[in-house]
Amino acid sequence: MMKIKFLCLVALAVMLSPAGAQAQEKIRLAVINSTNTDNPNIAQQSDIITGDLTGSLAKSDSVTLVERDMLDVIIREQKVNASQLGQVQTAVKLGHLTGCQYVLLCSTTFEAAPIIGAVLVDVETSEIILSTNEGAQGSDDASVIAASARLADQVLNALTGARAFIADIKVKDIHINRGSSSGVRVGNFYRVYRDADELAVIKVKNVRPDYSIAEVVKNGGDVKKLRRGDAIEAVSQKEAQSLMKGRKTTKKQSSRKSADSIAEKFTDKNEERAVKYFRVIEQSVDIFNKQAKSALAQDKPSVKNDAGLAFKRLGNHISQNKNIFTHSKKITAKQVAEKIEYCYAKALELYTKAAEQGYATATSNIGFMYEEGKGVRQSYERAAELYMKAAEQGSRAAQNNLGHLYSIGKGVPQNYEKAVEFYTKAADQGYALAENNLGFMYEKGYGVPKDYAKAMELYEKAAAQGNALAINNIGAMYANGLGVEQDYAKAIEYYRKAAAMGNEKARSNLKKLGASLE
Predict the structure, then answer these.
(1) Residues 6+ apart with CB under 8 A from 60
(2) pLDDT tens, 410-440?
C-alpha cells in the first residue's frame, strides 16, 4: 500500500510540473521556412522538409518550439512577404513578437538531392550564430530525414554548447550521449576525435531515448584507440565514406589534413565564439544595468520587477550555455560563474525593492528563486512562506506554486485539500496553469471527489489559453474514455497539437497509439 501511494505521488509531481511553466528553463525557438519560390510543388516539399527538421528539434529536452499556427498568424498580421522571411531583421522582429531567444531560418534547394540550409539568429543581439547546410544522400524520405537529423544536431550544439562524446565503451559497443531525443537515427555516422587527432568513424546501430550504441566502421579505426570522453561529430554517409577511403589509401596525408581542419573547427572557432559570446553577455549586463538604474528611480514596482526578471533570464541563459566556455583559454569558469551570480544577485535586489512596495508578483518571484535555489540557498520552506505572502496579496502565480508545494509536500506538509484550495484561487483568476493542475486533481480525485466532467471543463479552459499540458490531458481523456466517449481520432488530434508545442508527454502518447506526429 505504501509503495502504491509513493508511486501515485511521483506521478502527481511529474504531471503537475514544479511551479508549472515557470520551472521550464528551455530555450524558446521559432523555426521558419524561408524558401522563396513560386513553384507550389517545391514549396510543399520544402514545408515537409522543414517539418522533418522541426520534428528532430522537438525531441530535444533543451528547446521549446513555437507552435506553427502561432507563427503563421503573426506572419500574416505583420504582412511579412515570402522574400522577407529569409532576412535577419525579419527573424529578429518575429522572435521578439513570439517571445523567442532564437529563430532558425530554414531554406531548401533542390538539385540532384535536397540541400537543407539553416541560419540560426540570436534575437537579442541580431547575431547569426550558425549558418550551415546539409545535403541529403538521395531524394528518398529516409535520406532527407537523416540529413534533417544531422542538421538538428548542429543546431542543438550551437544553442546549448553541449558537447557530443563517447559516454562508455563495452567490448565493441560504443555508447554515445546522443539518442532519439536528439534526433539520432540508426545508420547515422559520426567521426571520433581527440584534441586535433581524428581517431575513427562510427555508425549508429541501436538508438535509445538518451543514448545510442555505435560500432567502429570497417577501416575507420580501432576500438582500442578510443576512450570515454572522446568527442564526436555527426557526418553524412558521403563524408564518412570519404574519411574511410582517405584513411585507407593516403593515411598520412589524410590524417594531417583532417587534424588541421579539426583543430581549426574545434579550437580556434570555438575560442572565437566563446570570446564573442562573453562580450555579448557583458554588453547585455551593461544594458540591463542602465534599465535597472532607471527602474530604481521610478515609483512603479512593476518596472523594478520587470528589470529583475530581465536579469534572472540573462542568468538562466548564461547558465544554460556555459558549456560554450568549457574549453576556452581566454574565458575562465570563474568569470562565467561570477556573471551568473551577479545576474541572480541583481535580480534578487530588484525583486526585493519591488516586493518592499507591496508588489505581489515580485514576492512570488523571490519565492521561485528560493524554490529553484538560484541566487540564494535552495529552501522550499522559505519559498512556501513567500508564496503564501504573495498569494494573500492575490498573486495567481504564487497561489498556483503554493498549491504545487502542498500537492507534493515540499516546504509544507502534504495536503491535497490545501493544494486544491490554492489551485482554485488561481484558476478563478483565469490562470491557465492552475486550471490544468486543478483539472488533474479532479481527474484523479486528489483532495476532491473524482469528477471527469469538471476535469474536462478545466482542461478546456486552460487549453483555450494555449496550455500544452492541458491539451495533452484532453487527449488522454479521449484516449481512455474518461467522462467522454472513447475516441482515438480525437485523442491523436489533441496529442499532435500538444506535441507541436513541444510537449514530450504528448509525443510519448502518440507513440503508444502508434500514431505519427503529423
Answers:
(1) 152, 156, 181, 182, 183
(2) 899 999 999 999 999 999 999 999 999 999 9
